[in-house]
Design brief:
By secondary structure, the chain is of the alpha+beta class. Helices cover 24% and strands 23% of the residues. The longest helix has 44 residues, at 2-45. The chain is extended and about 100 Å long.
C-alpha cells in the first residue's frame, strides 16, 4: 500500500510536470484567450477590427483613459500634438556653451514596438542633450486636507545608460515662466526614476522651507528596499505613483506595488526638523585627555633568558640523507631530443640551449643534487619582547564636545503643508533616446487615480502580457544568460523518471520463513492462510521451530524403534495441518 501511495504521488508529480511543459503550446491559446477578451472590449467600444480566425495576433486599437473624478492635470497625448506644452528656450548656467541650450527634441508618437495601435505618448528623442518641457495645471494644487496623488507611465524603449525620467511639480510663483524653465526653477516635489551606471534610483524629493531663515532645503527620501533594476531594463511600460497624505505619510508605488513608504518627518535626509541640541563648536579636547583603553604594563621587564636574536627556523640536526640520493646527478638536464630551430640566429638570439627537462635518473631516486638539511621551527624562538597590555588607569573615554541648545532649532510637525504648485515639467539629461512618457495624472482622490490607471496602464499591461513569449522561450532565454540553468532543467526532467524506475523495479520482499527452513524437519508446511487464522492468543504456546529442531536431534540419537515411532507420532501430532482451528 505504501508503494502504491508513492506511485500515485509521483504520478501527480508527472501530471504537474506535463502541465508545465504543456504551457509551451498553451501560450498560443492564452494569446487567443486574450485576443477574445480584447475583441469583446473592442466590440463594446464600437472599434472592432476584422481579424482572420487563423491569425492569433492582437489587434486592439488603444483608447486613452478619461478622468472620471476631481483632478488637476490629465494628459494622454491622444491628439498627437504638444498643444498645451511649452518648450524651454532657456540656457543652462554653468555648462559648456555647446550643450548649455535646452535643444533636446520632444515628439508625440507611438512606441517602436506597436503593441497597441493608437497609443501615443511623449518621447524624448535626443541623446546627450538637455531637454526641458512643461505644462500648466488646470488649477494650482494646494496642500490642505486631501492627499496628493501623482502618477505617470515610463517605458525605456532602448534601455537606459545614464539619464532620468523624473518629473518636477513646479512651485506656484508670480515670476514662473515656463518658457524659461531650467534646472534652478523652483519646484515643490521631484519624483521619478533615474539611473547612471549601476546606480538605480527612484527619487522622491521635496523642498522644505526653514521657518527661521526662510531658505529652502531639499529633503531626500530613504532608498527603496526593492530591487529597481528590472524597471529600467525590461523595456516594459511601468506605472509610477506617488501618494503623500495629510498625516505626513507617503507611499511610492511601481505598477501599483509599494516599493517605498514612510513618514515625511522621519524617513528623509536631512531630517525636516533639526536636532534640539548640537555639539559646541567652541569646545576642544583638553591636551591631557587620555583616550587609550589599554596601555603597556610599565612594571613589566624582559626576562633575562629572552633571546630576541634567535632565528625563527633552524637546520634539522637529526635529519639524515636518504639512501640512494644521487649527489652527482642534476635535477634538470637539457632535453637530448631537442633540435635547434633552423631560423635560429646566434648573432640575434644568442647561443642556443636545449630546453630543460627533469632528469630521468632522478625519477626512481629519492633526490638529486647536493643534499641539504631541511629547516624546522626553532623551539627557542620568542621574537621581539613586548610588555603586556593592561587596563589604563587614566582612561577617560572617547572625548566628545559638550552639547548646547541648537540656535537654529525649530519644529515643523506638518511638513505636508508644502507650497502650492501650478505646473508639471520634465527637465532631463539623457545618454539614451526614445524614453516614452504617457498618461500623466494628478489628483487628490485615490479611487480616481486607480480608475485612470486601470483604463490606461492596465490595458497596456494586458497587451504586453499577451505579446510575451511562452514558458519555453522564457526558459531558453534565461538559460542563455545563466548557462547553469541547463543543469537544473536536466535534473528536473530526469529525477522523476529515475524515481519511478526505482519504485517500480524495487520493493520489499515478503516476510516469513524461507522454504528451506521447513526442510530441516519432516513436518508438513502450513498454508499462509491457515497460519494467519491460527495466529491467535491461544496458540502462543505452540513450540517454536528451534524447539522442534532440538527435540528432533535428541530423539534421533535414540537407537530403539519405540523412540523413533514416538518421534514420528509426536511430529504428526504437532503439525498445524492436524490441529483444528480454535475460535474465541
Amino acid at each position: 500500500m505504501k508503494m502504491g501511495r508513492n506511485l500515485w504521488t509521483w504520478f501527480g508529480v508527472l501530471v504537474l510536470g506535463g502541465i508545465c511543459l504543456s504551457l509551451v503550446p498553451v501560450s498560443v491559446a492564452e494569446d487567443d484567450f486574450d485576443l477574445d477578451l480584447a475583441e469583446e472590449e473592442e466590440e463594446s467600444l464600437g472599434q472592432t477590427e476584422s481579424v482572420p480566425q487563423d491569425t492569433p495576433t492582437l489587434q486592439v486599437t488603444y483608447k486613452p483613459p478619461e478622468p472620471t473624478g476631481e483632478h488637476f492635470f490629465a494628459e494622454t497625448f491622444h491628439r498627437g500634438t504638444l498643444d498645451g506644452w511649452v518648450h524651454s528656450s532657456a540656457r543652462k548656467d554653468g555648462t559648456d556653451e555647446d550643450i548649455a541650450k535646452y535643444d533636446g527634441q520632444w515628439q508625440v508618437e507611438e512606441m517602436k514596438e506597436k503593441k497597441l495601435p493608437g497609443d501615443l505618448g511623449l518621447v524624448l528623442k535626443s541623446r546627450a542633450k538637455h531637454h526641458a518641457i512643461s505644462a500648466p495645471l488646470l488649477r494650482p494644487f494646494t496642500f490642505d486636507t486631501k492627499p496628493l496623488i501623482v502618477q505617470y507611465e515610463v517605458n525605456f524603449q532602448s534601455g537606459i545608460d545614464c539619464g532620468g525620467a523624473y518629473i518636477k511639480l513646479l512651485t506656484q510663483t508670480d515670476d514662473l515662466d515656463l518658457d524659461q524653465f531650467v534646472d534652478k526653477t523652483p519646484y515643490t516635489i521631484m519624483f521619478g526614476p533615474d539611473k547612471c551606471g549601476e546606480d538605480y534610483k527612484l527619487h522622491f524629493i521635496f523642498r522644505h522651507k526653514n521657518p527661521k531663515t526662510g531658505e529652502y532645503e531639499e529633503k531626500h527620501s530613504k532608498k527603496p528596499d526593492s530591487d529597481l533594476r528590472s524597471y529600467f531594463t525590461d523595456k516594459k511600460t511601468h506605472l509610477y505613483t506617488l501618494v503623500v497624505n495629510p498625516d505626513n505619510s507617503f507611499e511610492v508605488l511601481v505598477d501599483q506595488t509599494v516599493v517605498n513608504s514612510g513618514s515625511l518627518l522621519t524617513d528623509f535626509s536631512p531630517p525636516v526638523n533639526p536636532p534640539a541640541e548640537i555639539e559646541d563648536p567652541d569646545d576642544h579636547k583638553p591636551d591631557d585627555w587620555d583616550e587609550r583603553p589599554k596601555i603597556q604594563d610599565p612594571d613589566a621587564h624582559k626576562p633575562e633568558d629572552w633571546d630576541e636574536d634567535a632565528p625563527a627556523q633552524i637546520l634539522d640536526e637529526d635529519a639524515v640523507k636518504p639512501d640512494g640520493w644521487l649527489d652527482d646527478e642534476p635535477e634538470y638536464i637539457g632535453d637530448p631530443d631537442a633540435v635547434k630551430p633552423e631560423d635560429w640566429d646566434e648573432d640575434m638570439d644568442g647561443e642556443w640551449e636545449a630546453p630543460q627537462i627533469q632528469n630521468p635518473a632522478c625519477e626512481t631516486a629519492p633526490g638529486c643534487g647536493a643534499w641539504k638539511r631541511p629547516m624546522i621551527e626553532n623551539p627557542n624562538y620568542k621574537g621581539k619582547w613586548k610588555a603586556p597590555m593592561i587596563d589604563n588607569p587614566s582612561y577617560q573615554g572617547v572625548w566628545k564636545p559638550r552639547k548646547i541648545p541648537n540656535p537654529d532649532f525649530f519644529e515643523d510637525l506638518h511638513p505636508f503643508r508644502m507650497r502650492p504648485f501650478s505646473a508639471v515639467g520634465l527637465e532631463l539629461w539623457s545618454m539614451t533616446s526614445d524614453i516614452f512618457f504617457d498618461n500623466f495624472f494628478i489628483t487628490n482622490d485615490r479611487n480616481t487615480a486607480e480608475r485612470w490607471a486601470a483604463d490606461g496602464w492596465g490595458l497596456k499591461r494586458a497587451a504586453e502580457g499577451a505579446a510575451e513569449p511562452g514558458l519555453a522561450a522564457q526558459m531558453i532565454s534565461a538559460a542563455e544568460e545563466r548557462p547553469w540553468l541547463w543543469i537544473v532543467y536536466v535534473l528536473t526532467g530526469a529525477l522523476p523518471l529515475v524515481l519511478i524506475i526505482v519504485f517500480c523495479c524495487t520493493g520489499k520482499k515478503k516476510s516469513g520463513p524461507p522454504a528451506t527452513d521447513y526442510k530441516k524437519t519432516d513436518e508438513a508446511q502450513p498454508d499462509v492462510k491457515d497460519q494467519e487464522e491460527e495466529a491467535s492468543p491461544e496458540d502462543m504456546d505452540t513450540p517454536t521451530e528451534e524447539q522442534e529442531e532440538s527435540a528432533e536431534v535428541k530423539d534421533a540419537s535414540a537407537e530403539d524403534e519405540t523412540s523413533e515411532r514416538n518421534l514420528e507420532d509426536d511430529v504428526l501430532r504437532r503439525s498445524p495441518r492436524n490441529r483444528k482451528v480454535r475460535k474465541d
